[in-house]
Amino acid sequence: MSDLVMGAGHSAAQETRAAVREAVDVARRALGGKAPRLAIVAATVDHDASAVHAAFREALPGVPLHGATTSLGVLTGSGVVMGSNGGVGVLLFGSEKDASFAAGSADFAEGAREAGRKAARALQSSSGEAPRLVFIAATPGREEEVLAGIGDVLPGVPVFGGSAADHAIVGQWSVFTNGGAIKEGVSLAGLWGAPLRIGAVLEGPYEPTDKRAVITASKGRAIETLDGRAATEVLHGWIGDSIAHEVREGGNLLMQTAMTPVGIARGGDEARPFYLLLHPAQAHPAGPVDVFAEAPEGATICLMSGSADSLVGIVDRLVDRCLATANLEPKDARGAFLIYCAGCAGAVGGRIEEVLSRLKNRLGDVPLLGFCTFGEQGHVPGVGNVHSNLSVALVIAG
Questions:
Q1: How far is CA 297 from CA 141, 221, 276, in A?
Q2: Fewest C-beta in 10 Å: which of 124, 249, 254, 265?
Q3: Where in the numbering of this chain does the FIST domain appear (predicted)?
Q4: Distance of alpha carbon 22 from alpha carbon 286, whole angstroms
Q5: Looking at residue 39, what is its pLDDT?
Q6: Are the beta carbons of 89 and 165 closer than 8 angstroms?
Q7: Whole-model pTM?
Q8: What is the C-alpha to C-alpha distance for residues 39 and 42, in angstroms, rounded to an integer?
């Protein structure tokens, strides 16, 4: 086993500096005297992002920082942390010889793909080898471009993380980079070390139905026609009258489609293909439907079906897959990182606590930090790094 140690802390204290200090103090104690070498940080937008970053920088001088704002609360081994002024959380990594860490970031001034390249080059310059795994936090909207840029510099390296979020999809999100909080850009954190055992999986908690259609016209993240018919017309026929008003007048579809997104089969296990999930977000009276991931023309989409039980129970499958991939027993896990789609969290309501309690039952008191995100990124064997919606990602390290 490696000498990796991890520690998690959180706080619902109202004052930002006090909340960060409390979270860091708890996380530090779990490191057993080893110095923190990387900090993944989370906060809700109830706290000012610049103040959050400044407080973490003060509490962790010289430690690479990486993270983002989270919707609905900070996910922890103790449950959802969401006080009257939100919550903050931190996951610390320490190692004296077996692991190394670095952070890199870039804004979108020269484009999202170039931002991915720049952030990846910053990681590349810190070591002569490619990282074992890269954590990502990006602002929503251009994740596929960012991943392409990372792949230009670090081909084949698994990338896991989620898109920054707020409570109401109003653009209040921020990404925490090593240098500060930014409104538009990407932060990356790299992990190196051959002795590390890492299991990382991205999945969606839905099953395919027999309803399928080909995207016959689209522009980026807008599906215009399916099998030559208006996208709204086809979705209405599939989903039913719960979206009839929005189809007729135009409107938000997020809540009505949280259990019935659409998916594109992208390979993976032949017995259980990976479905890239697209969350129908907005219907337009003229017929197009906006989604939160790219919808390429010619792709076949499938109506997917989920339930509160499937959205909660997926964590058991993710734990099994992570432990098997890493060849780890639960007792040997040093820490865990969770990405849970905010749309899924909103759909399950209070049962998000059950998601976290299931993780605790499986992994014990392992340090855990999780985010509710507006987009999920992960590596799928045989496919590569992808951006998906309504998905869950888990990383377990030992």
A1: 19, 11, 15
A2: 249
A3: 35-230
A4: 52
A5: 99
A6: no
A7: 0.97
A8: 10
Per the structure, how many domains does the chain have?
2
Q: Name the token pair of 367.
A: 């340090």
State the number of CA atoms in the 13 A half-sphere of 261 facing the CB.
30
With both helix axes pointing from N to C terminus, report the angle between 49-59 and 16-29 in degrees, rounded to the nearest 10.
Answer: 40
Main-chain phi, psi angles of 118, to 5 degrees: -60, -45
Last residue of a domain, one of 277, 305, 333: 305
- The two tokens of residue 27 are 């996380």
Question: Using one digit for the tens of pLDDT, what is the confidence trace for 170-209?
Answer: 999 999 999 999 999 999 999 999 999 999 999 999 999 9
User: For residue 335, which of 23, 22, 27, 24 has the smallest C-alpha distance?
Assistant: 27
Report which residue type is found at 85. N
Q: What are phi and psi of 65, to 5 degrees?
A: -110, 145
Rounded Cα gap, residues 341 and 348, in angstroms: 11
In 357-377, which positions are buried (b, 16+ CB within 10 angstroms) versus exposed (e)? bbbbebbeebbbbbbbbbbbb
Same structural domain for residues 193 and 242?
no
Q: Which helix (H) or strand (E) covers residue 316, if one does?
A: helix 308-326
- Interaxial angle between packed helices 112-125 and 143-153, expressed in degrees from 0 to 180 and rounded to the nearest 10: 40
* Planar angle of CA 358, 363, 364, nearest 5 degrees: 95
Closest residue by Cα to residue 386 from 217, 298, 218, 273 = 273
Q: Are residues 318 and 391 in the same domain?
A: yes
Residues 213-238: tens digit of each pLDDT: 999 999 999 999 999 999 999 999 99
Residues 199 and 218 in one domain: no
- Domain that includes residue 244, residue range: 207-305
Beta bridge partners of 6: 93
CA-to-CA distance for 281 and 290, rounded, in angstroms? 6
Domain co-membership, 108 together with 243: no
Look up tokens 């000498």; give the residue. Answer: 3
* Residue 189 and residue 161 in contact, taking contact as beta carbons nearer than 8 Å: no
- Terminal-to-terminal C-alpha distance of the chain: 7
Same domain, 274 and 149: no
Q: Are residues 190 and 285 in the same domain?
A: no
Residue pLDDT, tens place only, 349-384: 999 999 999 999 999 999 999 999 999 999 999 999
